[in-house]
Structure formats: C-alpha cells, structure tokens
Amino acid sequence: MKKPTILVVVPARMASTRFPGKPLAVLAGLPMVEHVRRRAKLCALVDDVVVATCDREILEATRAHGGRAVMTASTHVRCTDRVAEAAAHETADIIVNVQGDEPLLSPEMLDAVIRPMLEDPKLPCANLISPIPEEEGENPNLVKVTFDRQWQALYFSREAIPSRKKAGRLALQRYKQLGIIAFRRDFLTTYTRLAPTPLEELESVDMLRLLEHGYKIKFVPVASNSIGVDTPQDLVKAAELMRADPWLQHYQKMP
Fold first, then answer.
1. Using CA of residue 63, residue 182, residue 200, residue 237, what is the dihedral sign?
2. N or C terminus: fewer CB in 10 A for the chain?
3. What is the DSSP letter of 22?
4. Interior/surface letters 110-145, b for 16+ CB within 10 angstroms, e for the rest
5. CATH architecture of 6-251
6. 172, exposed or middle or buried, with CB in 10 Å at 0-12, 13-18, 19+?
7. Where are the beta strands (DSSP E) in 26-124?
8. How do residues 143-170 score in pLDDT, each as one tens digit?
C-alpha cells in the first residue's frame, strides 16, 4: 500500500492584535516562522513544507532563506481556511497545520500527530495537546481543552476548564491545544465548506466550527515544553528555552 504523502502548511500573517509582525520576529538569528519551517522539515514523515501567507514580507523572507511560500487571500479570518487554500494547489493526502508561532516545534511532535493518521485511514483529524503548568492555568492566550475517555474533543476555551472554583482540590491535570493539527485532505475541504459558528467566533478557536457541526476531533497528548508565541513576553520565554534546545544546531545552517 502506497504511503500517504504528507504536507506541512505553516500559516503566517503580519497582522496580530497582541503581537503585530510576530512571524518575522528574530529568534537565534532567524525569523520565528523560519524556525517553524526548518523544524518541520526535520520530521522524516514529512514530504514537504510550505509557508502560507497574505503578506509579501513573509513570502520574501521565506524564499530568501531557501523555503517554499505561497500567497493566500487576505480575507481569511481563520488560519485553517488559509491552510486549506494553500493545500488546494498541492497533491498531499495529509495536511498538517503548524502555526507559525510554534518556534519550539520538535520532529517528535509532528511524528506524534501524523502517526495516528497513518495507523487509522479513517481518522479525519488529529490535534496535539499538552499539559498546562499550574501557573499558566488562567492564561487567556492558551486554548484549554477537555475531552472524553477516548481523547475525543469535547470543548475548547480560553477560560480554565473546569474553573478553579469548581475543580476545588480535585487533582486534575489540565491540557492546552497546540497549534499542530493534522487533516485528511477531504476533511480539510469539508472544514472550508462549513459555515462559521457562534462558539468558534466567541472563543476564536477554529476547531469549534467542526464540533458545532457535529464532527469529531481526536486529541493526541504529548509531553512538551513548546510554547505558542502570542505576545512579546512569550518571545522572550521562547528565546530562553531555545538556548538549551537540542534541535537548533540541526537546522540553523540548512536551507
């Protein structure tokens, strides 16, 4: 049986209410989005990586560093729609959305989200999640998740799930969504054809569109110290973590 082809699409745009221009913010001598692109290429399961953007600056920066980049419409509200537009011109069977603000992405994380898709040809979508440190439990920039006993998504929220008051002294590990989501090609197309939903817009979480329309999302838990960069303060934390990151030396000089 032929192995499915796997494409990583990195959506990135300059406009951001919390951190304008963050894809090109410099970390260890490279734009943040370039760290994401190069790290994705380190995963042996990945066939290709492309950056999808509506900004000429990001397109040119990616190409200047030897990467592939494509222009997409500037009207997309959700990054998943941007990923779908870029993927429509490709032939990959599985498309992995790796958001451009995940500079500490590791090849193992991509491996973790892709393997369930290879093992179960009927699985339409897999989303990485990881434990939330206690001190980050109330951070509104983190998308918190809850799930059933089969790791199927129940809800996504920027509020704590459950609240501290309701959890009481219950020893409950909370989880956050990571911006690393694998889609079967036809399921990604399905997403774009669904009407936006109230909770999706309220929480500003793409995946709620699928839940509200009755589709299932499989969570894949990983132990990770990766952080999504939402603010300039997050960039400082990422820079500190990157100094001790073992993968940096593997790709700093690669095209």
1. negative
2. N
3. G
4. bebbbebbeeeeebbbbbbbbebeeeebebebbbbb
5. Alpha-Beta Complex (3.90)
6. exposed
7. 26-27, 30-31, 48-53, 69-71, 94-98
8. 999 999 999 999 999 998 887 777 666 6
